[in-house]
Design goal:
The complex is a heterodimer.
Chain A (H helix, E strand, L loop, with lengths): L3 H14 L5 H20 L4 H12 L2 H15 L1 H24 L7 H33 L4 H36 L8 H21 L5 H26 L7 H19 L1 H7 L1
Chain B lengths: L2 H4 L4 H16 L4 E2 H11 L11 H10 L3 E7 L5 E7 L1 H29 L1
Helix pairs in contact in B: 2-5
Chain lengths: 275, 117
């Protein structure tokens, strides 16, 4: 005698063997299969036939698996690559800072401030990286709308992350300054730089959220954002100290690099490629 | 059955219209995959035939794009069912797609009026 639960269990095994591993997706498809089987059986079709018909309506394992794999490959790939890069950098930074925490030298509050700011700036730089990638792709060939949308979504996610972290870094820095320097805001180059970067990142994030801008404008603003963050971070460091990571050479290289891609993004040949 | 009812929509047109159809249906309230398919079948008088399983990757992509959101709901028989509802970005996307479809419709209607009147 036909057992629907057993038949569905076997169908799930077949789907899993064909590459459909997500239990949530299988649960959803199973719900569909049961509803269709029930509807067909209520019209007088024997349950076994109703189930087979419902399976055929749903489509074969190969075609379903291919569609879901395509989805995974195109929609979230930039986000995945960015997330891996950012997580790797942030973990390494967190580990290094935690190892350096010691009373009198590097407090936990100062470490948290440095981590938030650096990780936030790294997230902001990644959005600029997406902008550079976009310009490179569009310069040489057309870009599929799904990839363009995926890139825009990745930019929005990393913008949100950078806004949150940089604002948290700014607040933590103010607390540290209040505890150690007797004032929350000294008005030094680094504080002003962080404030400028925070305002820019917040404005850019709100601008994107409004949904009133094209992908192209968003991507070009990402590149502009990298120049602003470079000036706010490294430029402010040069004014404050004039050495180390904040060197003229690094700042010039960053500004030059982004200026080249920004120019590539606005020249007429780019517009032709877009049309 | 009249002639109009026999004309099936081409595969390409069915694929292109999937997003605005789903967004339009969800703008009327939350729904789940099977119900969406049945609604489209009924409203199109069976002229729009989706392969049922193809709807789900489209729904998942639209969720990735931030146009729709989903939640699991327990039904009367104790089983879970995934309900989708439209988000603010989805409403915006629907408004844009509506403009595009109306623009195409208006051009075609104008051309055919000139030709056949």
């Amino acid at each position: 005698m036909f057992n629907l639960d057993q038949a569905i269990s076997e169908w799930r095994q077949q789907m899993a063997a064909g590459g459909m591993k997500s239990s949530q997706v299988l649960d959803e498809l199973e719900g569909h299969l049961r509803a269709d089987t029930r509807a067909l059986a209520s019209d007088g079709t024997p349950e076994v036939q109703a189930f087979r018909l419902a399976v055929s309506h749903l489509g074969g394992t190969d075609s379903l698996s291919t569609e879901f794999k395509k989805l995974g490959n195109t929609s979230s790939m930039p986000l995945k690559i960015g997330a891996w890069l950012w997580t790797g950098l942030s973990t390494a930074l967190a580990a290094r800072l935690l190892m350096g925490v010691s009373p009198g030298k590097l407090s936990l509050l100062l470490s948290a401030h440095i981590f938030s700011l650096t990780a936030g700036y790294a997230a902001a730089f990644l959005t600029g990286g997406f902008g550079v990638y976009y310009v490179c792709c569009r310069w040489f060939r057309a870009m599929w709308p799904t990839r363009e949308q995926a890139l825009s979504r990745a930019v929005l996610s990393f913008s949100r992350l950078s806004v949150g972290l940089v604002l948290a870094g700014l607040l933590l820095g103010m607390f540290w300054s209040g505890q150690n320097r007797g004032g929350y805001f000294a008005g030094g180059p680094r504080e002003i730089g962080t404030l400028v970067a925070s305002v820019w990142l917040m404005a850019f994030w709100l601008f994107q959220r409004s949904g009133q801008v094209s992908s192209r404008v968003t991507m070009l603003l990402c590149i502009v954002g990298n120049m602003i963050v470079s000036l706010a971070w490294f430029g402010a460091g040069i004014v404050a100290h004039g050495n180390g990571i904040a060197s003229y050479w690094l700042l010039d290289a960053l500004l030059g690099f982004h200026l080249v891609f920004f120019t590539m993004g606005v020249v007429p040949i780019f517009k032709t490629a877009e049309a | 059955m009249n002639v109009e009812e026999l004309i099936m929509l081409s595969k390409e047109l069915v694929a292109a219209s999937a997003e605005p159809l789903i967004l339009s249906l969800l703008s009327g309230g939350e729904s789940y995959g099977y119900a969406i398919i049945q609604e489209v079948k009924a409203r199109s008088k069976d002229r729009i035939q989706w392969t049922d399983g193809m709807l789900y990757p489209v729904l998942h992509r639209m969720a990735d794009e931030g146009w729709i959101t989903s939640r699991w709901v327990e039904t009367e028989n104790g089983r879970k069912r995934k309900y989708y509802s439209i988000k603010k970005d989805g409403k915006r996307a629907l408004a844009q797609q509506r403009e595009q479809w109306l623009a195409v419709h208006s051009v075609l209607a104008g051309l055919w009026k000139e030709r056949y009147v």
